[in-house]
Specification:
The chain is an alpha+beta fold. The protein is about 20% helix and about 30% strand.
Length: about 350
């Protein structure tokens, strides 16, 4: 069985279609990156955006182009509840409507910039890039957020010169920890993830992956443990993982991972992959610990400790992207059993792209 084509413009049938799904909520920023009184520039699926906070601190997203001469609004200035373009001075309200044009009291009634639906949730700023009438906040994947008192998390982000699907593949198949991260996370799991094929199932809008690692001997614990890892990977590329550690024998008593007892330790990961443009992506990540088992300093040490791991991923995936760019596009990756989850998610992406393209046509 072969993988699907690496060209994000090719459907399962070989027909051309858009590079990205538009009708989805994408992570634009950690909410801490958007302080009151500032405008930040972001690009999502090739669309430049200007983000700022409006009345009451609610986030606002404009197309980063003034409706007059297409100057970048991210270089503008906030004045009360309006944004002024600093090229010719036009002012726009938080709905994108022009409310003032210097030199005249008459404002053309249709003069406006495009605004996008925005939701602040789970410490992320989400932007809906498609049809505003379809922007249902209930479609936003559930995560924890940096301010959830039940958890201590620390966050960060990385920019990749690589297609978002390659980062998806990396997160959906964690068996690479045994080799790419042999001396870091691989050592923590005993280097045995590639020996334990996970259970993978389709869920609405994504996939669910779980596995037991029995009698693991991580270097930071005095004896063996059973570790249960489970995560949802949801459109457009959101990774929500729980890792729970139990006394030996727990896996035998709970092989399906249900009705588990209180763990010895529990950590979580909250990550999102946002396509910036073809061949460019931004990766948002946070890791932390259940407040029952640690504090903020432990979460900070956890994230600091995996920075080397994230750089290893980035180096490998960007190198992979360069190899793919120089390879005959008729060649495809091949399939091994550990590729089940990445393949299922690529198929889901392709189906959604095809359906959206058919709807637009």
């Amino acid at each position: 069985m072969a993988y699907f084509s690496f060209s994000s413009r090719t459907s399962l049938t070989g027909d051309t279609m858009p590079a990205f799904i538009r009708n989805l909520w994408y992570v634009a920023a950690w909410n801490r990156e958007l302080p009151a009184g500032q405008i930040i520039a972001r690009t999502i699926i090739g669309e430049p955006l200007a983000l700022f906070r409006g009345p009451g601190g609610a986030p606002v997203a404009f197309e980063d182009r003034c409706a007059h001469r297409m100057a970048p609004l991210s270089a503008g200035r906030l004045e009360g509840d309006t944004l002024r373009c600093m090229y010719h001075g036009l002012r726009f309200d938080c709905a994108g409507l022009c409310v003032s044009v210097p030199g005249t009291e008459r404002v053309p009634p249709r003069l406006a910039v495009r605004s996008f639906p925005v939701v602040e949730r789970s410490s992320w700023v989400w932007v809906w890039m498609g049809d505003a009438a379809k922007a249902d906040p209930a479609l936003i994947p559930q995560a924890w957020g940096l301010d959830d008192p039940a958890w201590h998390l620390k966050e960060g982000s990385l920019d990749y010169d690589a297609d978002h699907q390659l980062i998806h593949d990396n997160l959906l198949d964690l068996s690479h920890l045994d080799y790419l991260h042999e001396k870091t996370l691989g050592a923590m799991t005993g280097g045995r993830l590639s020996e334990e094929e996970p259970a993978v199932q389709a869920v609405p809008g994504g996939v669910y992956v779980s596995r037991w690692l029995r009698d693991a001997k991580p270097p930071y614990r005095p004896g063996p443990i059973d570790t249960h890892t489970s995560y949802h990977f949801m459109l457009p590329g959101v990774f929500i993982q729980r890792v729970r550690m139990f006394p030996p024998g727990t896996a035998a008593r709970h092989p399906d991972g249900q009705d588990l007892p209180e763990p010895l330790m529990e950590r979580v990961d909250q990550q999102a992959v946002t396509p910036v443009a073809p061949g460019r992506s931004r990766y948002f990540y946070a890791a932390g610990v259940n407040a029952k088992f640690g504090d903020a300093s432990l979460a900070a040490r956890m994230v600091d400790g995996v920075q080397e791991t994230f750089q290893q991923d980035k180096t490998m995936i960007e190198a992979q992207a360069r190899v793919i760019a120089g390879t005959d596009p008729r060649r495809h990756m091949t399939y091994i059993p550990m590729d089940k989850a990445p393949t299922m998610f690529r198929k889901l992406l392709a189906e959604r792209l095809g359906a959206e393209a058919a709807g637009a046509a």
